[in-house]
Amino acid sequence: MQSSKTYLFLFAGAILLSTPAISQDMMRNVDLASPMFTKADMTRAEVEAEAKANAGRALDFSGKSLNGLDLSGLDLRGANFRAARLNKAKLAGANLDGASFDQVWALEADFSGASLKKASLFASQMQGAKFDGADLSGARIAADLSRASLRGAKLTEADLAADMKNQSMGLMRAVFKSADLRDANFEKAKLGRADLQFAKLAGANLAGASLVGAEAGGADFRGAKLDGADVEDLDLASARIDAAQEKAFARASNLARAFKE
What we know:
little secondary structure, two-stranded parallel sheet
C-alpha cells in the first residue's frame, strides 16, 4: 500500500509541473487537508535521534509525512526526502547540502538561511515556500516555486532550465510565477525556458546567466544586473525594465511591449 501511495504522489508531483490547466486540476484532486498533508509521522526528537544514530550516513525520509515539523538548524546533509510531505515545515538554517527533495510537497515551508548547495528539487511542489537568504548554489531546480520568497538567496551556477530530455509528463522546469526574487544571486545560472512571469527580480544578479526562451511577462527587472546574460527570446511582454537596460535586452522577445522606466 505504501509503495502505491508513493507512486501516486510521484506521478501527481510530476504532472503538476506541466501546464497550468493540468496543475489546477491535479490540485483539486489532492486533499491537502488530509492527515498525509498536514500531520507528521515523526517528531523532531526522533529525527535528531536518527541523525545521531546514523552519523556520517545519509538519512532516508523518502515518502514520510513531516508536515509542520520544526527541523531548523539540523545537519541533514545528503538526506533523501524524495516524495516526502513537508508542508509548512521549518528548516531554517538547516544544512541540506546535496539533499534530494525530488517530488516533495513543501507548500509554505520555511528554508530561510538554509544551505542547499547542489541539492535536487525536481518535480517538487513548493508554492509559497520561503528561501530568503538560502544558499542553493549549484542546485538542480525544476520545482514549482510560485509565490515563493527567495529574497537575497544565492543560486549561482544553479540549473533551473527546462529538462528537454524528460517530456513524458510535460515541461519540467523552474516555475517562479509571482515569486519574490529581489536581490537574489543568479550569476551564471541556467534559466532557459524557466517561468518567471510576474516575478520580482529588482536588484537581482543575473550576470552571465542564461535566460534563453524564458517566460518573463509582467516581471520586474528594474535594477537587475545583466552583464553577459544571454537573453535571446526572453519574453518581456509587459515586463518592467530600466531604460538603461534596453541595450542588454536587445535580443529579448517583445522588448517593445516592455515598460521602460
